[in-house]
Batch of 4 targets.
Target 1
Amino acid sequence: MAERDGGKPAGVAHGSVKRLPALAARQPSIKDIARLAHVSHPTVSRALQNSPLVNAETAAKIRKIAEEQGYRASAVARGLVTRRTRTIALLVTMLDDPFSSAVACGVAETAADRGYAVLLANAHADPERERRAIEELAERRVDGIVVTSSRVGALYLLLLKALDVPIVLVNDQYPGELVHAVTIANQEGMRAATEHLIELGHRRIAYLGDRNGYQSDAARRAGYKAALARAGIGFAPELAVEGDGRPDAEMEAVHALLRLNTPPTAVCCYNDMTALGAMRAIRARGLRVPQDVSVTGFDDLFFAAYLAPALTTVRQPMRQMGQMAMENLFKLMSGQDSAAQMKIEAELIVRGSTAKAPKREEDQA
């Protein structure tokens, strides 16, 4: 029969229990609390976990003694019993990436609300490092893993399933539905940005993408082409160029666009960092944004509203995406059903970097 801890245990004082000198130099254990309360240590364990097997008066006295003695439950000890460490791993592609930082805030806030600690790892935008980091995190017995902008290919994602650790990706960069993911509506977002430029009268619209073959780039390029096709504007291959997501590298690509016999009057950029380099390159050639060339971005990073002019861009609710990833992970950890792919609507934010298409001599002829 299970021990029923009712009544008033002998030897438990009604007043405060003084902290014993022997315990002052170390962290007290459950056995120490049990000795002071004159109960068994399983009774202390049950009381601290709010078990109904311990009556309310006894449980309150035990908790009071534990607080006075500075007792804190060991996460490791709890994990041995529950097989849960109450630790989530967050693997970011690059620690200094504004997108990853914003997503991390959403992950950390939601995890803390549920009483989970977050273990942070940085992949340095290296697929091999990311692969090793996920293996190491799984070995640490974390309860779940969130990965931002994963660079790991679909083949390895299949191997990750064998680790038996719930994994949720935020904006995974390679195609496949092997794991759960939270993504933005990339194609729809870029289509909206391109349609905005078409409504302003632009017809020579360039797309500045990313050469790394990411899923998000393919989807955004498709959105760009869809908007052109809907408006009856033919796709011009020379206007679709690639960079590597860094502002300095984008400058060279934009210079090549502006040297064309008929240069673009607008540039749709893969992301805000790309747009930053594009705007710099346009100014370097003595042109103005948006009077001569309009520019759009994608992400709505923190600096977008503070550029001169402020950047028209497609907003990703990054903090919300981190929160959604954690909520999805909690469902997976508890064995609940959860959608494999969660897609968030993209929102076009119109600011000062886009304007009506300039009148050119060939347009007036």
Target 2
Amino acid sequence: MVVVLGIFFGLAYNHAYYPHRLIEYLEAASVGFFCGLLIGSLEEFKLREILTRIAFLQALIVRTILYSIIISLILTAVLSIEISMEMEISYIETFTIYLTGPDFQRDLVFSLLMVSAILFIVQIIQLFGLSNFTRLIIGTYHRPKEVSRIFLFVDLKDSTSIAEKLNNEKYSNFIKDYFYYISDAITLYGGEVYQYVGDEIVVTWPAKANDSRSIMCFFEMKKIIYQNQNYFEKKYGLIPDFKAGLHYGKVIVTEVGKIKKEIVYHGDVINTASRIEGKCNELDQTLLASSPVIEFIAPQNDFQVLKKGNIYLKGKSDELALFGVMPISSSLY
């Protein structure tokens, strides 16, 4: 997403200040691509974890100033090459002239304005989620529609005892860190966060046959927490553990709200997925899945699927066959 916005920045910059020729736009798009790639890499691997620890407005200001300076310096470096070749003077001299001249100030102001706008768009997208943001914009679910979805209800174990051990602020930070780390698994396996409910997160996927991304996502969450257990142990004195229920079926999806719009799902499938998750402790399982979802996604040989019986769920009149799912290879857990 950042790379695409970087390309857009390059095109807008060329349109504002340089000839409207195809070659110029291609060069500008290439520079924008590089800027987006660099900033995206910094965001993902260096700055994201640091900046999420500070207040939103502070992080926004830091990002805006830092990225604007980076982009302006890249523009200076690239444009100095062209000027150096045209005027036949040394690159260092050209770079110094450009850096201390009005063009650099122009580029910095332009970058500040564009980066502010881009960061605002990114924050809005992150607030809704990219898929939901797109659907809200184009009105996909302005009218209720029936769709098939897979739902994964992930719930923190022993949350009550954890809350008793930690004060309110520390417990809140614990939940925040827990959600922060497992979110990478959701992104990796194409899930959409539907809801955060207390210490529970609900993730959903479009229903696709023979697609076990939902199961892979859950065990990737486990792996991520395991890889960061030292962080949690050092900061909180405990490591988050969690369980999940997985179900699939048809639901109604629609837009709701007047002041704060959301895309919501209605149907028995969601309630059933929540009830399945509630049986994990009783059946001593970390991941429980219903027979419909197991038959539909057909987990491959990487997973062991064991039937735990036909179980009555709260509020349901009929039994539902439930299966415990575990990875065969320890590398998946």
Target 3
Amino acid sequence: MTPDEIDAALQAAFNRCDAASCPLTETQKQILLQIVEQIQGKPHSGVSDIANPLDELTSEELEAFLQFVKTEEQQDRTWKVQLLNDWLLENDSGAVQFIRDRYGLQWLYRVESHHFDKYSDFGDALKLRVGDRIEISNALWEWVQADGPCQREWFPCTVLQVENMNNSDDSFTNCVIRFSNGAEYEVQGIYEWNRYNWRWPQG
């Protein structure tokens, strides 16, 4: 969608809320408009790699925030959506209310999936979802060695399907991805035995 189409869609949504007798407050409208403006102006040059926003949190704040994210993901909810919903509905966010009070929307927008990689004790709490952008290593289809002719390379792709597989002996997760050239590929055991071969985009 073009910026004008996005703006028109938002204005139509605001009007529908008004017509349904559920008008948004001016603050809620401003939050939505700010998010759209930030998305439209998002740099694609890897600027997000300059600083990890999670480093700005105190140790207590970081612990509370990581626990919140882990809990939301375990309940199959997107943590960022949950926070934004709280903000839009003016609900208290509990142990992570400090994010809204102290850091705000700009900080929240800067947090990307790859920022969690720094915290090894966080593990793989972030689940893959349809539409996520990830990078896949050529080690999935090539013999890659540190000193061999084929070096590890990373290719951007989009998640098309995530499916949990269960049989009598084992359970694992398969993931179908699509590369930018349109080719599709199924990664079996994406969490279990192929975790080393994918990563969140680095910028």
Target 4
Amino acid sequence: MENLSDFVDLAGWTPYQDEPAGENEKTWFQDEDGALWIFKRNRPQRSPNENATEFIASQIAGLLGVPAATVRLATLGGSIGCVSKDVKSDPRNQLDAGSLFIAEIVPDFDPKDRGARGHSLRNIASVLAAVSPPLGHEEAGLSATGWFAGFLVLDALIGNQDRHSENWSIEITPDGTYHLAPSYDHATSLGIVQRNPEKLNRLVSDPGAVRKFAARAVGGRFEGMAKVPLVEVASQFCVDAGPAVTTHWASAIAGLDIGAAPEIVARGKMSSPSDRLALELIRINKERLVTCLRS
């Protein structure tokens, strides 16, 4: 039985509206301060750890200095999941998925194209060239492209292979300014695809196997990157964005204190083998990123 002591019970929150976007059922709620949060139920047929990986990823993003959605573990009736706070800095702002902007420069763009046609690193950079940094992060000296490079570094660190064109967005203010929105939707990470208990136990007992498992996280959500490791996807985007961007994220990843990771992962309430796999992936991927961003 799950220990639910760290979970927020949404029974006392105000339902706001259902969310039509995405593959699974989601509902928006208002907390006592009126802030909007989206509740995502765990899908047992996918993994019972979806809420945990969302939560852990949001915490790791904070350690790395990447703007990201605030996530809490949550329950609603008999359902277990997580709530993710609205990434907009102001409820009056509009949030448009990256796919809408890619479609403006790629004829007949299809966000569900199996080969990710048009969702290339170059096209993403082209879109972001006309976009400002995330609201509240303008003083860091990074452009929107530089911040998106941080999203990809985070993805490589946690093994998130789901950065498709509708898993990043642009925030538009009422006066017409465009800003990269904080990162969100990190459930497909930290080895969540490894669900078979026997295979999971065998995997975490073999350090060499975990390293090979980490290397299998590739950039299939980006055109031409289906066989390219995520650490190389992140490194290439950083290099293309310029020396200042590469230096910033190389320093951030080198200085990342993963000593805080065990406590963060433990709060996700996963099984012991899942915790071990998540921690080992973070350790290995940090090491790989340091090497990649240094070269």
